[in-house]
Amino acid sequence: MLSRDQLREHLVQTRIAGDVATPRENNLDHYSSLANGDPHYKLGLTFDQPWSYRDILALMAKSAGVASDPDHRWGQDTIDPDLVIDALDDMAESIAAVLSRESPRVLLATGHPTGLLAVHLPLARLCAERGAELLAPGEGWSYSGPNFGRRRKIRYLQDVAMLDDRGAFVHTHDATPMCHMIDELGGELPDLVIADHGWAGAAGEAGAHTVAFADSNDPGLFLGEAEGKIDVVVPLDDNVLPRFYAPLTERIVTQVSRAL
């Protein structure tokens, strides 16, 4: 496992953190849309308090390390690598607490298969090796969404749920698949959900113990964390080359193994 300093350098060099690819104007547009109540940016969550645009920006500066200056509206934005590492350690602690129980039930899902699947697959293996039951509700269930015509379905790859479109795993923020999965479990929530995007939001909204990954332009999950619906959110660029995530994944796996 890399040292903290080595991991920080890796995160910055690969742009998982530091000067990230997501432009400032995209971040602020999403914060504004969420403040205006656009359900697409809620990621399956409801919120107990009103969140203004300024409130969301302040939270994202605190939780993800984006620039806090509201007058910085264009160009480069950032994710703080130290916040990433702190959240990775918090996630490892949260996962270890669940895996220390007898036969915990765990559900994993990703809406970003081109990037974050590389993180979820080793975490699925870790959970299985530590005696967890990996759940697969809703496998094969299909639906049509507002932004796509033909039906997409839930498909699992090595115990990680994704959305399939005629054999291709697709990027989605939609909470609908996880809502169906939770319903199919009949009210018996998983002991742990490891997810991102709407998969994580819907799980947290249902009351499941949820840990998540989120980019700086996906503020909904950070609001869910602030309101206690999601246990831990790791800020990171969610679409760099999959191999770049290996050191941060190794940190989670190593920290969980040490705790157990």
Keywords:
9-stranded mixed beta sheet, two-stranded antiparallel ribbon, 9 helices, 260 residues
Outline:
Helices cover 40% and strands 16% of the residues.
Contiguous helical run count: 9
Termini Cα gap: 17 Å
* Main pleated sheet: 9 strands, mixed
State which percent range the strand residues make up.
Answer: 15-25%
**What is the overall silhouette?**
globular
- Mean pLDDT across the residues is 96
Compute the number of strand runs: 11
Low-confidence stretches: none
The amount of helix comes to: 40-55%
Structural class: alpha/beta
- Rounded to the nearest angstrom, the radius of gyration is 17 Å
Query: Assembly state here?
Result: single chain
Give the H and E element order. Answer: HEHHEHEHEEEEEHEHEHEH
Please specify the SSE layout and strand pairing.
Elements: H1 4-13, E1 18-19, H2 24-35, H3 53-63, E2 78-79, H4 81-99, E3 105-109, H5 117-129, E4 133-134, E5 142-143, E6 152-157, E7 160-165, E8 168-170, H6 176-184, E9 192-196, H7 197-206, E10 210-214, H8 220-226, E11 232-235, H9 246-259
Parallel strand pairs: 3-4, 3-7, 3-9, 9-10, 10-11
Antiparallel strand pairs: 1-2, 5-6, 6-7, 7-8
